[in-house]
Amino acid sequence: RDPHTISARYTLRMLSLASFSLGLNLGTTPTRAGDVRMAVDVRAPFKTTESDRLMDEAREIMPGGVSSPVRAFKSVGGDPVVFDRVKGAYAWDVDGNKYVDYVGTWGPAIVGHADDRVLDAVKATMDKGTSFGAPCALENELAKMVIDAVPSVEMVRFTNSGTEACMGVLRLMRAYTKREKVIKFDGCYHGHADSFLVAAGSGVATLGLPDSPGVTQGASASTLVATYNDIESVKALFEANKGEVAGVILEGVVGNSGFIVPDQAFLTELRQVCDDNGAVLVFDEVMTGFRISYGGAQQHWGITPDLSTFGKVIGGGLPVGAYAGKKEIMEMVAPAGPMYQAGTLSGNPLAMTAGIETMKILKQPGTYEQLDRMTDKLINGILDAGKAAGHAVCGGHISGMFGFFFTDGPVKCFADAAKSDTAKFAKWHRGMLERGVYLAPSQYEAGFMSLSHSEADIEHTIAMAKEVFAELELLAGGEGGQLRPAHWRAAPPEGERERPEERYAFDGTPTGVARDREAAVVRRNTPVLLYCVCEVLAPWASLAPLCTKSHARRWDENLDATG
Q1: pLDDT tens, residue by residue, 389-405
Q2: pTM for the whole thing?
Q3: Tell me: the pLDDT tens digits for 294-314?
Q4: From the CB of residue 215, how many other CB atoms can be counted at a distance below 10 Å?
Q5: Looking at 74, 181, 184, 312, which residue is catalytic?
Q6: For this structure, is 284 an active site residue?
Q7: Which of 343, 445, 356 is nearest to 404 (CA)?
Q8: Which of 10, 298, 378, 470 has its CA 20 to 30 A from that of 19?
């Protein structure tokens, strides 16, 4: 009955009532069971309305709605976002979401997207024409740059893509040796030519497809498959096919089964085995060429192949490919020799110009040191965050190429990579996407750093990775540890779409029903938190019992419901 106590009770009850209204505007970003952190979310909500509309339309007019399978997000769930523009280290989709991009158009954007120096040169060349269908001086210039950069290269033939380059080099291997069989490695991807779609990586591994339908028995019969980093498997194939093997082709660092690094001893002995059997050794450098060093994987490892294929970086973001090597072998190619290969747009001036300008930038001092430093910080930050949150992760990098797996490792071949927790990767990928980090939508693809990425970009990415790893740890705890439902699945059942009205955006913003559900929890719990403050600050001991029973009961009920 004391007036001070009555006044205090009245004030506390008014504060409790106010807190119910305040709770409507508060968001919760729980990271662990029992840790409800209340904050005003200043990040823009992640929305994909226009992307979803465009993809629905695309699926009616293009197979799967895409022009290349891995872009469809089949292995990570949800729908892909549709890009609108790119610049530097960033990409923007048609809904206005901004991303730090580590796909870099699958490797070519090593200097950054839409680099002004490259664009200015391409614009100047465009004024002269987009395609000649005739020899031009720009071909000579880029060919000389490739020859100067790569120790094993004496002649170059330009194509329009990495796949086309690998098709050409396959035919050249057979023409030069007069043998038909070729050894490739499980999980290595060399484009979609028939002979290479046997135990292939990239989209074939991503989608979990068997050897592609439509590949004839004759095409696949001439392709022998060895295990990466296992020289004994190579020797066994040579022994079983004496005098029939034209050559061996491999990725100098595997980027199409994730990121897998070869052992130095494996490469050294592989070179010797090829020599001993009169076979050609081919490095597929479509991904690694000018990416892990200016001279590619072969310069990095100190191995000299007979032939090499290139693409991606040497086109500076425009379609290009090339196969190259020793002069005595390359002179087999028409019109110098009998092996035919041609292309209408091969060596077109726009692609040559973009490649030349990109190579000029890469040749500048400190370029690869910067890529190595930034990539090292990124991948180690991600791995440390994953391990700290209790996840089994492993990975690494060489210069501006990186990757990691949701498995303890080590990963030495595709069979090791296949042990990864792809369902967990799918959730992690979506979490990063909704936090503004764009990564390859497959556990079986490498990532790429550019010269445009900043320290702030790396730090932001690591911070977001920590959040998502923590959320994955929480979700792994089962029903008792789920403060946020895991509506995102690795792949929804056939014909079923995700329900956006019940989805929690991984940037901490619940939407629809989920938002209402969290708001209700906040409204219930805010008075309890306010009570705790009052108990500490109030000078009147009689304040403590005022809301103890009713609010403590609600608090216990909430704990029972949410863990």
Answers
A1: 999 999 999 999 999 99
A2: 0.77
A3: 999 999 999 999 999 999 999
A4: 17
A5: 312
A6: yes
A7: 445
A8: 470
State what percent of residues in the chain have pLDDT above 90: 69
Q: How wide is the angle at C-alpha 191 spanned by C-alphas 189 and 194, nearest 5°?
A: 105
90-93/38-39 β-pairing: unpaired
Q: Is 426 left (phi over 0), alpha (psi -120 to 50) or beta?
A: alpha
* pLDDT for 200: 57
What's at 17, amino acid-wise? L
Q: Please report the pLDDT score of residue 423 as a whole number.
A: 94
Average pLDDT, the chain: 82
User: Is residue 176 among the annotated active site residues?
Assistant: no
Catalytic residue among 90, 102, 176, 189: 189
Q: Which one of 284, 421, 457, 507 is the catalytic residue?
A: 284
Angle of CA points 480, 481, 483, to nearest 5°: 110
**Residue 332 near residue 192 (C-beta atoms within 8 A):** no
Please give the DSSP secondary-structure letter assigned to residue 202.
T
Strand partners, 100: 90, 437
Residue in the block written with tokens 């990495």: 162
Contact 429, 444 (CB under 8 A): no
Give buried/exposed letters for 19-49 (b at 16+ CB in 10 A, else e). beeebeebbbbbbbeeebeeeeeeeeebbbe
Nearby residues of 32 by Cβ (< 8 Å), 6 or more positions away: 470, 473, 474, 481
* Distance, CA of 217 to CA of 248 (rounded, Å): 20
CB 317 within 8 A of CB 109: yes
**Region 125-150: what's the mean pLDDT?**
97
